[in-house]
Each structure stands twice: as structure tokens, then as C-alpha cells.
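#dry-run=false #mode=assembly
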Amino acid sequence: MRVPRAWLALVITALAAGCGVRANQRGQLAKPKMQFNPAPEATQLEQHVYSYREGSAGGYDAGGGGCGCN
Amino acid sequence: MRLQLAAACALLSGSPAGAEPDGDRATVVVRTAGYVDDDHTAISTSLVSVRARPVGDVFVSARYVADAVSSASVDVVTAATGRWTELRSEVSTGVAYADGTTSLSADYVFSHENDWDSHTVSAGGSRDLFGHNLTLGAGASFVDNRVGRADDANFHERMRVLGGALRAVWVAGKRDIFQGAYDLSRASGYQASPYRYAFVDDPAGVPIAFAEVAPEQRTRHAVTLRWNRHLLRDAALRSHARGYADDWGTASITAGTEFVVGLAPFELGANVRLYAQRHAAFYQDVYDRPRRYMTADRELSTFQDIFVGVRGRWIGESIAVDAALTGFGFRFPEFSRLPERRGLTAALGLVWAI
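#status=ok
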């Protein structure tokens, strides 16, 4: 078990450190359209449609309660 | 009625770009959306949300959602009942801490309808590492559902869902950002529908209807990869793919992309999403003989669907207004009572930063 964990840590470190982007290089990344969930309420309503029309669930940062029937 | 088995996983977007908060003292969101399909079902949804920053790096939120559903779908016709309408109400509240490097959140959701009550609690956290180039997050949730049946005071069932989520966001360059996610949930309890009937073939004539029976345990896995790439002067391509599998034998793949371009003060987008699913192991359109588990849920059959949409947003100094229109189509090759379904969704939203 130790070897895979060590490799995983090494890969993550290499990826994060070797490809680092400094704060002054993040102008484009900081735009709302580059965020994964820029409008949480709209995402919730969209994911609700998928959740009651498909047999799968999870993976898209949206949840809720209840049946959302038929 | 159809069961929603999704656990409400903690919000772990963890974007290094700073998706939350937006820097204002408070933000009010009002949204309305409509759904209509050719299976005689219409849904109207309204949402009001308030997010505020009472002190420092602490944020609080509250939200109300109402769904009005009217349906005379093939399920309703098969059950020999008439068109029905019902209202679902959902209230939620949350508290979060976000200092730019570390985030913590806790949320509670209560949902009510005439035959279904649901309580959800969730919590999560994330931490930026390596100069904000990598964000790792984790969360957990618990949902307690109490299931009833309209006009039957003696029908009481429960279904609980325990879920967990892991997230990693990686800034891969000046224009590229990736997110990987793994969601796991375990549902225990009643997971059929008290209104639906599965059919068993009768060689002598008309198929015989049996009440649905589904397994009482379901473990679900979802792995998602998302990639946002900045293009041109002010545009982005936002893509995603998801693989899903559960121990009922259901498996699916989802893939989609959205192109968004900024033409200040407007923002325009177009998107497409594809979905393909393999049936649950115990699903049959018409059963050859009575089985231990039987379902008439077409969402457990093999099917494919496509969603294609456009959206636009006007962004003012403190107010933004957006609208979206999406068309969709489903193909159910294993559900003879509804081989296809088509429809539209429309949404209108207002965001007011105070």
C-alpha cells in the first residue's frame, strides 16, 4: 500500500508545483464563466430535471431534498 | 411518484477563481423555470435565495423552492387514475466559512409534499494547496425520507441515504482548470413507487399487474471530470464527462459541453448534453413470470437522451438578468408504453447584489 500512496503524492506534488500559475497570471481564470458552478441556484434547478428523469445521480455539486415527483 | 435517490452532497466547488463569495454584503436570487413534455407532464418551479455576509469570512444563506407538478403521464394512465397536481415545497439554510484558502460549510434542507417528507443535513470543507493551484475537498450528507401514499393514511415507509464526496480542482495553466470528483451514496429502505405497477405476461391474454418491488439497498458511484478552457478574448468552453454505476446493475455515461462568450454587457452561451444508460439487472418491460424484484420505472431501463440549449445574460452594475431555453429528447427502446419523449425547459433568473 505504501508504494501507490507515495506515487500518488509524488504525482500530485509534481503536477501542482511544476505547472503552478501565479496570482498575477489568473486574470482569465478569475472570470465567472471559468468557474465550475457560477450560478448555484440555476445549477440546482437544472440538476433537479436530470435527477428525476434519469437513473443516475451525483457528481455535479447539486443536491436537494424530496421526491421531485413523476 | 418517482423516487429521487440522490444524496445531497456538500457543495465543494472549491474553485480557485473564487466562486464564493462575490464580495458583496448580500445577494438575492429569484428564479423561475418551466418544464413541459409530450408525456402530458408540466412542472413550474420558483426559487428565492438570499446569501449574506454578516461578519468577516462567515456567510449565511436561506432558500425557498416550490414545484407545481401536473401530470397525466403514461404512468398515470397505466395506473387507471386521472390527471393529478401537487405542490412540493423546499426550504434550506446554510452557514459557511471561506477565507480564500480554507472553506467549511454546513447545510440543512427540508422538503415537503403531500406524500413525501425529506430532511437533509450536509457538511463539507476544502483547502487550497500549492499556491492555490490545487484544491482538495470532502463532504458528507445524510437524507431521511418519509414516504407516504395519497389517500392512504396507513402507508408509511422510510428511505435513508448516506453520501460522501471527494473533490479536487487543479489549475493546469493560465487558461485551463480541471475538476475531478467522486461521489458515493448508500440508500436503505423503500425504493419502489406505491403508484406504479409492473406487468407479468399472461399467455392466456392481458398481462397481469403487480405492485413494484425494488431492492432495499442501493450503492451508487459517480466519477466526474470537468474541464474549463478560456478561449479568445472573453470566451470559455466548459466541458464535462461522468461515469456512473450502482449495484442494481444500472450504469451510464454523461458528456456535455457549453460555449460561453462575453459581449459586454451581455453573455451568450450554447450547450449540448448527451446521456446513455444501461438498465438495472432486474428491469423488464413485461416480465415473463413474477420475480422477486419488479419495476415499471423507465428511468431504470436502457435509454438515451439529449439536451440542447441556449442561454443569455445581461450583467449590470448590481443586477444581472438571465434566460435559458432548452429542448430535449429521450429514446426508450425497452419501454414499449413510451418509446420516445420530447419537451422543452425554460428558465428566467434575476440576481441582485446589495
